């Protein structure tokens, strides 16, 4: 009879420990404040559940100063190419993107290419430049992050169990593979994003 309360106490103690915690890497470029806050909230929830969470934040926009996290989460930042920072400092591309007729990324691209077809005859390429400019910006940011070999090797040594990311380009998938994450998960903040896969 005395064994039952002891076993109950031991079980309750053990169940409160973070047994089976995973090492999770969240790839969250400092590109847009809402995206960083979203991924930071995901990191906080996972950390509160007992997981070991690291958020990797390549700094693309000097206007985004938050890491998005509030809890016990490790954050690592690296600067990207100065041209990326300059481009992201120009708020007109954000305004142009959100002033289109749609708020979804796939819709934004569709509207941009429709507008391009109309403007092509007038030699106006503003809308296509927005989408191709963003692609160029993310590519340049990815290339410049690769120059931080000491940080990348430090992250690789962590041997993460899971990598989580939003997908703006293919860069996060390459990093997830490089960091030896056995699994990766896409976390789109935009609900329309699932149509792109």
Automatic annotation (TrEMBL):
Q: Which terms in the Gene Ontology molecular function aspect does this entry carry?
A: glucuronosyltransferase activity
Report the EC code(s) recorded for this entry.
2.4.1.17
Can the keyword Electron transport be found in this entry's annotation?
Answer: no
What does the UniProt keyword field contain? Glycosyltransferase, Transferase
Give the matching InterPro entries.
UDP-glycosyltransferase
UniProt lists the family membership as follows: Belongs to the UDP-glycosyltransferase family.
- Name of protein: glucuronosyltransferase
What is the scientific name of the source organism?
A: Gongylonema pulchrum
């Amino acid at each position: 009879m005395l064994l039952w309360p002891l076993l109950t106490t031991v079980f309750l103690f053990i169940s409160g420990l973070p047994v089976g915690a995973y090492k999770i890497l969240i790839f969250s470029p400092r590109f847009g404040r809402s995206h960083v806050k979203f991924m930071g909230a995901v990191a906080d929830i996972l950390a509160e559940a007992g997981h070991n969470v690291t958020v990797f934040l390549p700094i693309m926009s000097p206007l985004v100063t938050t890491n998005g996290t509030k809890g016990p989460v490790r954050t690592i930042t690296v600067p990207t190419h100065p041209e990326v920072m300059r481009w992201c400092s120009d708020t007109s591309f954000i305004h142009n993107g959100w002033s289109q007729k749609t708020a979804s990324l796939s819709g934004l691209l569709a509207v941009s290419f429709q507008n391009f077809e109309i403007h092509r005859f007038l030699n106006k390429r503003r809308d296509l430049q927005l989408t191709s400019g963003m692609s160029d910006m993310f590519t340049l940011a990815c290339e410049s992050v690769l120059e931080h070999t000491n940080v990348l090797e430090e992250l690789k040594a962590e041997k993460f169990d899971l990598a989580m990311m939003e997908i703006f380009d293919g860069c996060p998938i390459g990093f997830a593979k490089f960091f030896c994450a056995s699994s990766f998960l896409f976390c789109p903040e935009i609900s329309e994003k699932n149509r792109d896969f």
